[in-house]
Design goal:
about 375 residues, alpha+beta, single chain, 14-stranded antiparallel β-sheet, 14 strands
Length: about 375
Amino acid sequence: MRRTGILFAVVGAFLALAVTGSALSLCDYSSPTTSITRMRLSFNYRYFDDAFTDEVDVSAGRSRVEYSSLYDSPNLGYSLSAMGELRLSELRVSAGTARSSGTLRYYFGEEQPVFAFAGLSTTLDTALPGPALDVTTGLGYGRFTDVTPLAKAMRIESMLLRRGVLPASLSDQVLLALSEEIGRRVEYPTVNELVQELVSTIQEAAGVDVEARVVLAIEELVLATGDERHCGWAVQGGLSYEVLDPREGPRNVLLSFSGSLALPPAPESQILFEAGLTGPIDISERHTATLAASYEYSVGTLDVMATLLLTREKLPDEDALDSALATVDVSFPVRGANVGLQLALSKPAEATRMSTDFSVSVTWRLL
């Protein structure tokens, strides 16, 4: 317990520094409606047949797809997430895991973060004898908000500073004014009119002239996709019913607790945390606990994505089964070449040590 307390203290200190590291935090912006969808696909495979051996030395890989969707309005909200991974050996599927969950939230007031929710979660793993399906309902507290407009305003400011258009940083009030206009993009007949409004605000606040090519750069940042950022947190608890038990045991009503946190330390990055705990009244003797974390960093042509998934399953009178999966993907250009790095560390519940999979790819376009 002491080590766990130290870990939470370190994480809390890190998050506090991330939020207070600048005068204006991305979480200072609030959007009335949030709608963010993400999807990511990764694949790697290695085949090596040594001429001096009788059999193929290496023929293995993995394919992974992740999907998430978040919607939040004054009265209703929902979140969807899904993850699927196939492990391949000798061009055949050797193992696989699929998880999905969905939660519908009803807020008791437009300004209140208290909500009632109903959720559904499923798990399918080749290591288990069957699928799992749980239905959950209960109460929760918290909200999420789309802070992408403020992130875009900060990117515009950074671009203007790099090009020497601005003599100094814009004030917090001007950045928030720019983000408010970007958040009202659907109200403008054309993007050009929105950009002209942004340029007018910048010129009036900083006393500078913005030339045509810089106006085009601002428009590119406004139209950019795939850079969505959101902020907020939520905790919820209730009762869960096991519709399907993978071990074909008795179907029980369980306690269910979960929490999630979204934090963008900077316009270029996004941190996500999700944790869950499910079990009967005597939850210390039987439970399933999960912890998922991800870090995304994207600026220019550099993309970094790191994920961590920890799972613990405890059955009565048995030792807990722990599994872990961590991945890191990095891609960036180097002197005309595109370099990709991929690292995957995995520990199935039955294994006693970690499996390591590391690959490097370099591509040049010569003509």
